[in-house]
Amino acid sequence: MKRLNLFFVLSILFLSGILFMSADHIDAPAVTNGSSDIADFYAFESSENSNNMVFAITLQGLLSPNNTAAANFDENVLVEINIDNNSDNVEDLVIQLIPRDGKMYAFGPYAPGTTGLNSSIDELATRMEVDITDYGNNAVIGTSGNSKLFAGPRDDPFFFDLGAYTDVLAGNATGFSDPGTDTFAGTNVLAIVVEVPKSTLGNDTSVNTWVETKVKN
């Protein structure tokens, strides 16, 4: 999806207890700023607390181990999780994520002042923060009440057999093998994971959710 300051959108629907995900690795046509490229988006019920939902975004896919330590979240890139809780395909709530000076800040969920292409951050909204975890270090988890936040490099969690995929497309294979070959094995991503109570989403049974990256004008 091409928009003025919107580089790529991944759309996802979840029901409580069910995982849905969408993936893209460095092939969104509008992405000119690699730090804004969305690799994957996951939403699922917390395995530790069934009253919570977890949203996980990965950026800058296919980082080699040698390049991961130097990879950074871009302070000019806002990551926005949109939540539609009444099925009209318009965000009713947002969770906004922005890095500053070695920390990741999460605002929301809260009702945005504007919807669609442009976003602003209400600094009076519910907020939590966490130190961005350095490559090779144990995960630093920020907490605020029943909410949690993580940001930092991680092994790419998405499994994809590119060789088998191209063979199927070329007519050289009729399907995938099990377990197949993980093309992304050994590559890393920058990940943001935020966990919030379902009660903050306006509908604890079913919501539509998608993630955007927006670049500061």
Description:
Strand 6 and strand 7 form a beta hairpin. This protein has one domain (6-157, 187-215). The model is unreliable at 1-19 (pLDDT under 50). The chain has two helices and twelve strands. The two termini are 19 Å apart. The strands form two sheets. The chain has a six-stranded antiparallel sheet, with no helix packed on it. The protein has a six-stranded antiparallel sheet with strand order 2-3-4-11-10-9. The protein has 217 residues and is mainly beta.
Annotate the secondary structure layout.
Blueprint (H helix, E strand, L loop, with lengths): L5 E10 L4 E4 L14 E8 L6 E12 L1 H4 L8 E8 L8 E8 L2 E8 L16 E5 L10 E3 L2 E9 L6 H8 L18 E10 L8 E10 L2
Antiparallel strand pairs: 1-12, 2-3, 3-4, 4-11, 5-6, 5-12, 6-7, 7-8, 9-10, 10-11
Write out key terms for the chains shown:
217 residues; mainly beta; six-stranded antiparallel beta sheet; 2 helices; 44% strand; disordered N terminus
Structural class: mainly beta
Question: In whole angstroms, how far apart are the ends?
Answer: 19 Å
Mean pLDDT: 87
Number of helices: 2
How many whole angstroms does the radius of gyration measure? 17 Å
Question: Could you give the order of strands across the largest sheet?
Answer: 1-12-5-6-7-8
Portion of residues in helices?
under 10%
Summarize the structure.
The chain is mostly beta strands. The chain has two helices and twelve strands; from the N terminus they run ββββαββββββαββ.
